[in-house]
Amino acid sequence: MADLERFIADCRAAHAADRSHKAVREVVARAVAEPGSVLKWVGEPKRAEVQKLYHSLELTILNVIWAPYMTIYPHNHRMWAVIGVYTGREDNIFWRRVPQAAGGRVEAAGAQSLSQRDAVPLGPDIIHSVTNPIARLTGAIHVYGGDFFAAERSEWDPETLAEGRYDAQKTMRFFEEANARQQAA
Fold it and tell me: Phi and psi of 92, rounded to 5°?
C-alpha cells in the first residue's frame, strides 16, 4: 500500500509542477518499467474492471483491467490521459470526426499497440477504442488530467459510428458482460 500511496503522491506532485501530461507520463513510465512492482500494489488482475485508485477535480488515477479479446467502443475523455501497461497488451484505434457527417460520425485515423512497460500520452481531443487482443487479462494504469467521472464525454456506436452521450453505467455493464463471457469460455 505504501508504494501505491507513493505513486499517487508522485503523480500529484508531477501534475502540480506541470499541468500538461509530460511530468505525469514520466512517473507512469517509471512505474510500469517495473511491472512486478505495480502488480504488488494493485494485485494480480483477476477480472475485467475499472478500479478507482485516486480521484480529485484535477487528477484521476484508475487501474483498468481488460478481459481477453475485449473491445470497447470509440469514446473520448475531453482531458489528457497517460496510459501505462503493466501486464498484457492493448491495441488502440484512433478516430477522427468526419467533416460535415450527420450524427457526429467518426472514421479510423490511426492505431497504436501498447505492450507491457509502455507509457503513452493521449491528448485531450483524442477519440479512441481499445482492444485487448490476447487470451489473458491486460492491466494498465490510466492517469487523467481532470475529474474523469464528471467530464461531459461522448461515445460512438460501434456499428453506425454515430456520436452519443457517454454512459458510464453502460460501460460498467460492458465490463461485467466481458467477465461473464470469460467465465463461460
Answer: -110, 135
